[in-house]
Amino acid sequence: MNSNQTMVKMVFDRWNSLLKSFDTTLNSFTDEQLEKETAPGKNRGIYLLGHLIAVHDAMLPLLDLGSKQYPELHKIFIESTDKTISEIPSAKELRAFWNAQKESLTEKFNKLSADEWFEKHTSVSAEDFAKEPYRNKLNIILTRASHLAYHQGQFMLLK
Amino acid sequence: MNSNQTMVKMVFDRWNSLLKSFDTTLNSFTDEQLEKETAPGKNRGIYLLGHLIAVHDAMLPLLDLGSKQYPELHKIFIESTDKTISEIPSAKELRAFWNAQKESLTEKFNKLSADEWFEKHTSVSAEDFAKEPYRNKLNIILTRASHLAYHQGQFMLLK
Question: Closest-CA residue in chain B for A118?
């Protein structure tokens, strides 16, 4: 295992563990529980679920792995705060998106070699990347992992 | 910047950003706000603060950077759940510990070179580390960063 492989394993161990933890929590909730607020006046579980799907979907173009698969979620779950848009996908629909996305992301991620994870992501220029090599694809996973942990902390409160 | 330096920067950028974010939130709260529960029946802000100090303190022996500085917090904030021990340090005391720890950890962390962050931590044997090189010191920071993000998500709900 060379040093790039070691680092990729470290970051993906975090990512996969957090994803699994969210998944377990999600599967323990009924659709009614997802309608509850995490704390009085705060985001509902269903909003957090949609928000995570939308944020993870946006990684695809950033990682040069294709277009978004759920572009319609951006306006509802990233641009808008919870309870400002009345027509949102149902818990059942979002659960299906979550499950399909889990498989699809894993499949796409597995195609990249350790060295490719250290290549630049699509929102940094080659010129800037030469000076700032930490703006690589793996850093996208690292930052999204801590974003996921942040919301998992809140999601757990629905229990 | 060699590849180990790049990885150390990636992980510490996360760690420092999360620490700063928690710090900003903490400073925006009054001591009375810290006494509130993050959600009905869940951990109080003051418990989360003590818990993070105790968890971060436990990194010191794990990273071979000396003994714990607040060993008395382990029983209260790691072994015990919130509201099961009546005598706990005050918000004022915990804020002082938090601030002192922030400086102390940064000072100790800055002494390690990028290559040293990829050496084994103290709870893995040399034999196991040869097969599992991802059980290094940097991985301790990586996992504690996502732990911090998880609780920061909850701490924010006190607002």
Answer: B3
